[in-house]
Every structure is written in structure tokens, then in C-alpha cells.
Specification:
By secondary structure, the chain is an alpha+beta fold. The chain contains 8 helices and 13 strands. The chain has a single domain (about 5-304), classed as Clam (outer membrane lipoprotein receptor (LolB), chain A), CATH 2.50.20.20. Helices cover about 25% and strands about 35% of the residues.
């Protein structure tokens, strides 16, 4: 890595933390999106326009089916490659969410990012969510905002009341909830049925879809619409894209078991390729999230 690249990668790593939709999803997390989202072609049936209604309905129904299942586990791996990086960076994570109670937990490991940036410290980040309140545990984050406790909390609906800290990226943090990320499937334009595949022993059908980002916010539930719009707008503005190609594997019950996409773009003069693979499993799992002790939590509004 050339001199000066440590700072650039470090800054990108910090931005990544805030933009990932915590996974999701991340979004989660909001990474560069261009090029092919995987997908093999050959033998699949391509459906577009009005003729794709049946196949599109399978994808469009998936978010509601996940919600009806009440809960699930999620695991994912994000890989970042760049012409400025000697080795690819991998960010693994896992969690579980109760969609009915609107609570969940997730862990992510940023060790590769910190190492590439020449930084020391723990790369383990933990997030808890109960309703609209989020608890984030990561020493680097606590230090960055001036908190003296291991956990920092904030209410997603009150971020606009906070001054002195740039909280714009935190507004998309709820995209780490897979049920919210999956709203993207409702905005599928072209869809290709690529046939049957097993995902960890479960029979599924693989679909390749191109998501129309402009349609996503209006398709999200009303209470999620503002956050989804902010996330989509950030994605479009930062990377100049309007479509998201992705692959999704749907089981016989209409539940998504796996999603993946690959992104290629030029960011800050660097060629960057980001890929994500996310798996959902254990639908109906019991999820019990308890907030950390008050003595271990700093409200972000108090240090802003």
C-alpha cells in the first residue's frame, strides 16, 4: 500500500461502518452498486415487462413472508477489493431479528479494515435494537463520539434533534434488519428464473433481478419510508447508479434463503469491487434482546 493510503482506507472504513445498514443489509448496510450481480445465464427463462408478473410476484411477496415468519437468523460476508489494496478485505457478520417485536442483534468484524488502515484495536462491533432505539458497542465508535461507556445509544426517530455530530449515515442503520432490506425485491424490473439450487440443504429457486432504486422508497412501509429513502438517495448520489442487479434464492415456502450482489465502480479515483452474500435461516427462532445496563450506555444526544 502506498504512503497515504492508510488514511484513505481508514476513512473509508469509518464511512463503511456508518453506511453499511449494519450489515444490511446491509445494507446492509449502502455500497457501490454497478455491473453484474452474479448470475449465470444459460438455460434460464428471462421475463420482462408484463410477462414477468408471476416471477416478480414471488420476489415482491418475499418481504411479507419474512415478516409473517416473525423472526430469523442472518449471516453475511462483505468483500472489498481495490487497486489500492494488497489483499481483499472481508467483513463477516451474523445476527438474529424478531420482526414482530422489532428487536434484534448483530455482530460484525472490521478487523481486516482496521489492519489495512494500520489501526489497532478491536474490530468487533455489536449492535442491539429494540423498537427505534439502537445500542452500538465498538471502542472506536465510543472514542470517536467522546463516550466513556462501552455502549452508545440513539433513537432513530430523534436523530434530527442531535447537533454537533454528523448523524446522516446513522439514519440508514435500520437497513440491517433483513425485513427492511428485502423491500428492495418489490422494485424488481427484469427478472430471470435460473433454476433450482440447494442452499445449505434447502431446495430453492435462484432468481436474477435488476432492482429499480427509484421505486424502492414508495414501496417501503410508511414507518420505514424516510430511512429507506435516505439510504437509496445516498446510494444513488455517492455512486451515480439507478439500478441494483442482485441474485436471490427463494425456497418452496416463498422465503428468501440467500441474496448476493457484486458492485464495481470508481470511488475517489479508486477502482473498487464490493460483493455481498447474505443468508437467512432458522425462521421462527426465539429472539430475546435486553438493553445493556444503563451504567454502560451513553446517549448520543448527551455527547453531541
Amino acid at each position: 500500500m502506498a504512503p497515504g493510503d492508510h488514511d484513505q482506507v481508514g476513512t473509508e472504513g469509518e464511512n463503511l461502518l456508518m453506511r453499511l445498514r449494519v450489515g444490511i443489509f446491509l445494507g446492509v448496510v449502502a455500497l457501490v452498486v454497478a455491473g453484474c450481480g452474479g448470475g449465470g445465464g444459460g438455460g434460464g427463462k428471462t421475463t420482462t415487462g408484463g410477462s414477468s408478473s408471476d416471477v416478480k410476484r414471488v420476489l415482491a411477496d418475499a418481504p411479507q413472508k419474512v415478516k409473517d415468519a416473525n423472526s430469523s437468523k442472518v449471516s453475511f460476508s462483505i468483500t472489498i477489493e481495490s487497486d489500492k489494496l494488497a489483499n481483499a478485505l472481508t467483513i463477516p457478520g451474523e445476527g438474529e431479528f424478531d420482526y414482530a417485536k422489532k428487536q434484534g442483534r448483530m455482530t460484525m468484524d472490521y478487523s481486516d479494515v482496521l489492519s489495512a488502515a494500520g489501526q489497532s484495536g478491536s474490530g468487533q462491533m455489536e449492535i442491539l435494537t429494540t423498537g427505534t432505539v439502537y445500542y452500538l458497542k465498538w471502542p472506536l465508535f465510543s472514542t470517536a463520539v467522546g463516550a466513556k461507556t462501552p455502549w452508545v445509544s440513539f433513537d432513530l426517530t430523534k436523530l434530527d434533534q442531535i447537533s454537533g455530530i454528523d448523524v446522516s449515515s446513522l439514519k440508514t442503520i435500520n437497513q440491517g434488519d433483513p425485513s427492511q432490506t428485502l423491500v428492495y425485491l418489490k422494485a424488481a424490473g427484469t427478472v430471470e428464473d435460473q433454476g433450482a439450487e440447494d442452499v445449505d440443504g434447502t431446495s430453492t429457486t435462484k432468481y436474477h433481478a435488476v432492482i429499480d432504486l427509484d421505486r424502492i422508497p414508495d414501496l417501503a412501509p410508511a414507518d420505514q419510508r424516510a430511512a429507506v429513502r435516505a439510504s437509496v438517495d445516498s446510494l444513488k448520489t455517492t455512486y451515480g447508479i439507478s439500478e441494483l442487479p442482485l441474485d436471490v434464492w427463494i425456497d418452496d415456502q416463498g422465503l428468501p434463503r440467500k441474496l448476493s450482489y457484486e458492485i464495481q465502480a470508481t470511488v475517489s479515483g479508486q477502482k473498487v469491487k464490493t460483493s455481498l452474500e447474505m443468508k437467512l435461516s432458522d425462521y421462527g427462532v426465539a429472539v430475546d434482546v435486553q438493553p445493556p445496563p444503563a451504567s454502560e450506555v451513553t446517549d448520543l444526544a448527551d455527547v453531541a
